[in-house]
């Protein structure tokens, strides 16, 4: 049917015949219909002015196969109407998928959509992957392209986490390094909790780094951080995520966490009952301690100074200068 | 006979402008089997070459002499780099060059006449100034020596400039430059030191063993040279104390404190990007998952109390062997200097001056 594919000159001069078929007769189950999102705007438009552009069908068989135009066909089918389509004739599932991608390229924005398309080709004929990536706007060997390919190594049901926003594509950098057992162990932490993109990447990175550093599997890392306790505890999702992140970080950075804890405790003691806040600003890289106070009048300035004088006499300041310990 | 790590060079690309240079002749003689391609003016080496397979003799148009790229907030040693080429055929997992250069082609600046002119200009314009210089910043100083004889040329050239002390920093053993040195006080051969475990695991690609390096250092010392040792990068790993103690012991098996001009100590630190390269190229190298924080210069550094712990341990061992004055930190803060050595560079007039004095100490 097509000449000079994959996927060069193909359809440039095609003049496909127009067909008119009852919408209900069209088979819309082809796996090449990669991104069949319901589209209210299309429905409204069809209701208002009718079908303006033809769908694509392969009408070579007993029942026309839809190649592009799922939203239009669904709505027209509900209304019991006919559909105008271009009959592209008989061609392979991959050709149909490629036509589908080209026909929908204008609304391609989500990583999940790209991954879905790549997974289709990986399952049908992986030799076309590079060509497909180009069409999807993924420059071969670029970071997003590598991440998309890495994602394909994950079980297919993980695509729903990507599509649902539970995990961003960048996580593939880490997840591709884990075996099935590790992947299974970690699923619980984003099945029930919806993390911000930055935090889930951070938490997975810490888990991975502890896993490699300590030579233990991911399930063990999660157990050491009591992650399942946090997932199952009666906490708000926000508190559960904060607790998981803090515990995993403490495993990843035990000494830093200990110093921070000591500094926080010391600051609490030193500044108790005052308006001063104290922090170690450089992760203990310098000897600096930052003190801040909010004042709203000259009288408050005087009070703050008096508080500071009292604080200066305290013996606990040494906790801020761990490098100077004996 | 070339070392094995140079035998894989199957192709030499050479800029037309330097194709008749002494360097090109020498390399051609020593690599007779290699395919020889001359690149016309403006022509570039095609990307994608495997680093070991190609050597590029280049007409370098940039500055050959430049200051060591120290960063703010930390004490820099003020060393000057003589830029003779880029990349290295050895494979140290922690090598910064992985992140510095996108391509890993071995490059040698073959327009040596331009280098000599720039050096001559620098020294005559600053005839009263002393210089502590070295070549081991963008490549290992001696790794290509069997092919290029670059260090030997440099040592020979610098004979006319007694205000220069040249440090040759390496992880291999090649002492062919020694014959070119008339005054052993003006050349400081230097070797990297590490714990035996790190040397074995993380310094891949036929680096000399620690014993070989120290044996070479002893040969130099016996010939009147003073040597430098660089504990850099010091790496935390389970059992690090025993490992570094063993190396310190080995140092004093081969050298006396008087043989050593100075010893630098630097804890593993890196530009954020390097971690990604190491994780990718050396997935077994788990030390990158230590407790690194972002230092005041934006580089990743081990948490300060852990660095102090490392340094105290090494300094104690080195002091027991009789080294003290010669110890310094590479890119460390005053806080760390004070906590470990009980002094800061300000106490002795700045690190730059101090190391300059140590470097020239052996002079007559
Ligand atoms: S010897 Fe030096 S330049 Fe060569 S790979 Fe090792 S660290 Fe890098």
Helix-strand pattern of chain A, N to C? EHEEHEHHHHHHHHHHHHEEH
Summed up, the helix count of chain A is 15
Task: Tell me the count of domains of chain A.
Answer: 4
| Poorly predicted residue ranges of chain B | none
Largest interface: A-B, 21 and 19 residues
Helix content class of chain B: 25-40%
Mean pLDDT of chain B: 93
Q: Which structural category do the helix and sheet elements of chain B fall into?
A: alpha/beta
Bound molecules: iron/sulfur cluster
Largest sheet of chain B: 8 strands, mixed
Q: Would you count the extended β strands of chain A for me?
A: 6
Oligomeric assembly: heterodimer
As a percent range, the share of strand residues of chain B is 15-25%
Q: How would you describe the shape of chain B?
A: globular
Strand order of the largest sheet of chain A: 1-4-2-3
Short description:
Chain A folds into four domains: 18-104, Conserved hypothetical protein from pyrococcus furiosus pfu- 392566-001, ParB domain; 108-152; 157-252; 273-319, no CATH class. Chain A has 15 helices and six strands.
Commentary on this structure:
The complex is a heterodimer of chains A (326) and B (364). With 326 residues, chain A is of the alpha+beta class. Chain A has helices spanning 40-49, 70-78, 93-104, 111-124, 129-135, 143-152, 159-163, 172-175, 180-191, 197-214, 218-224, 227-232, 237-252, 254-270, 298-312, and strands at residues 18-22, 55-58, 65-68, 82-87, 276-279, 290-293. In chain A, the strands form 2 sheets. A 4-stranded mixed β-sheet of chain A has the order 1-4-2-3. A two-stranded antiparallel ribbon of chain A has the order 5-6. In chain A, a hairpin with a 6-residue loop joins strand 2 (55-58) and strand 3 (65-68). In chain A, helix 3 (93-104) runs antiparallel to helix 4 (111-124), helix 4 (111-124) crosses helix 6 and helix 13 (237-252) packs across helix 14. The longest helix of chain A has 18 residues, at 197-214. Chain A starts with 17 loop residues before the first strand and ends in a 14-residue tail after the last helix. The model of chain A has no long low-confidence stretch (mean pLDDT 90). Chain B is an alpha/beta fold. Chain B has one domain: pyruvate-formate lyase- activating enzyme. In chain B, strand 13, helix 9 and strand 14 (260-267) form a beta-alpha-beta unit. In chain B, helix 8 runs parallel beside helix 9 (240-254), helix 9 (240-254) runs parallel beside helix 11 (304-320) and helix 11 (304-320) crosses helix 12. The radius of gyration of chain B is 20 Å and the shape is globular. Chain B starts with a helix and ends with a helix. Bound molecules: iron/sulfur cluster.
